[in-house]
Amino acid sequence: MFHSEDIEKILKSMESLKSSFKKFPYTETLGESDGVVVLRYKNLVIVASEELMVVDAEVIERFEVKFEEIGDQGKKFKYGCYSAEDVLRIEGDVDESFLYGVLPALLSEIAIARVLARDAFLRAEHLSKEETKIIKETMKILEKAKLKNVGLLEELAMNVSHLKAPLFTAYMSFKDEVEEISSSLIRAKMISKEMGDFLQEWISTIEFEVENLRHFESSFNQTLMAVNDALQVVHLTLEMFQRKEYLELEKRTSNLQAAAAVIEFVAVFYYTLKIWQVFLPIENLPSSLAFSLLAAFTALIVYLTDAIGEFLSRKKLGKKLPILLVSLAVIVTLMAFLPLIF
Q1: Burial class of residue 131 in the structure, from the number of CB atoms within 10 Å of its CB (0-12 exposed, 13-18 middle, 19+ buried)
Q2: CB within 10 Å: which end of the chain, N or C, has fewer?
Q3: Could you give the strand order of the β-sheet that contains 44-49, starting from the edge strand earlier in sequence?
């Protein structure tokens, strides 16, 4: 069995091969010669030959099948009996439909499952090493999560995230491969059942391997979930620290704003008093009235500054700004005329 990408190499290596297009159950022929039939099944090219052949292409899987008497040792199937060990031995009256259709298709699905299973176990071995690394880093995170060192927590979270990304990618590839093996086994079991559970023991062996792969898959999935939970703990911890820092910063900002408002009040009060003294005879006013008018004017100026800032940021005129402007106009009027009355 070869991959269909090597079809040109396969056909060139068989000079005596003649084109042939026959349809069988599951397969079709591409060419044939004395003792050789080349078949296609999905993305596989199958060379069925009476003798061992050397083809200039990478062999995916090779099966040796002998048609001979088995006796009482064989297992029954639709066409007779068989014995499936290293060599597949078949005794019975088989036809072309079985020989070039059913048998190659069933062996192809078994071959696909075997090859993918071997590759999946290699992936599992690699994933297990990566899993060990990320578990160690995750344990560090959980140990350091109680510390108030934000920089250290961020660094640990970044390290785990960097380890998680390739692990997750490799895990998804591994999971897809296990699913592909399962799909091949489902198709193989379907063909096997049609033939009276033909080669069921080979299929069962691969199913057992898939169960082991499923255990790996479950372990990797649990590790990824644990890593996600650990990262969530870190993110919540960092968020708590950041929120605390934000509240402290907001408190400091509020204090600074209050101090700025006091400074602004004092500055406006002082310069307004000096200007008022220059233009109007405020010495005739009672001290309490003069102070009240000046304090009211200064407070309205401070509030008006804040209201104008809100208006510029929100682009929406509320009730606050007009009320302050009217109040300010009233106070300015009183400050202008009261000194003249007294």
Answers
A1: buried
A2: C
A3: 2-3, 44-49, 36-41, 28-33, 18-19
